[in-house]
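dumping this here so i dont lose it
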């Protein structure tokens, strides 16, 4: 059975990320009168792509447990970890870049000296589900 857990979202992470398209839009507005029609079109495409990317990151961050794997989705990025390769899962508040939209995170150590940090909204249910599927 496949179970998906959405990422918990903290304002401290969400606001700066959501501000990127706003800052880009203000910057574009200040140079807009100086641009040619081709440049306007190209910059508008860039703005829409950047805005879509940010929205995809904010709405598309989730963690799916499916049989023997954990799939981590972060916008267009995906990482798959085999459950039997997980050595430990520990709580952390490490602010290092990761596919987590909250500082209330879980550090997953797996493979040969690898780790990733995630922030499932339903942390306890996620941990129970991982443990149940690993046994």
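and the seq i came up w/
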């Amino acid at each position: 059975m496949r179970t998906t857990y959405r990422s918990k979202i903290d304002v401290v992470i969400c606001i700066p990320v959501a501000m990127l398209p706003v800052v880009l839009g203000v910057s574009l507005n200040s140079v807009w009168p100086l641009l040619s029609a081709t440049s306007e079109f190209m910059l508008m495409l860039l703005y829409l792509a950047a805005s879509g990317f940010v929205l995809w990151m904010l709405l598309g961050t989730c963690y799916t447990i499916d049989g023997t794997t954990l799939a981590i989705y972060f916008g267009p990025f995906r990482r798959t970890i085999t459950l039997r390769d997980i050595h430990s899962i520990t709580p952390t508040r490490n602010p290092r870049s990761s596919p987590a939209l909250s500082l209330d995170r879980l550090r997953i150590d797996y493979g040969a000296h690898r780790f990733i940090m995630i922030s499932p909204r339903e942390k306890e249910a996620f941990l129970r589900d991982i443990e149940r599927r690993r046994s």
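Strands lie at 2-6, 62-66, 69-74, 77-82, 86-92, 105-110, 114-118.
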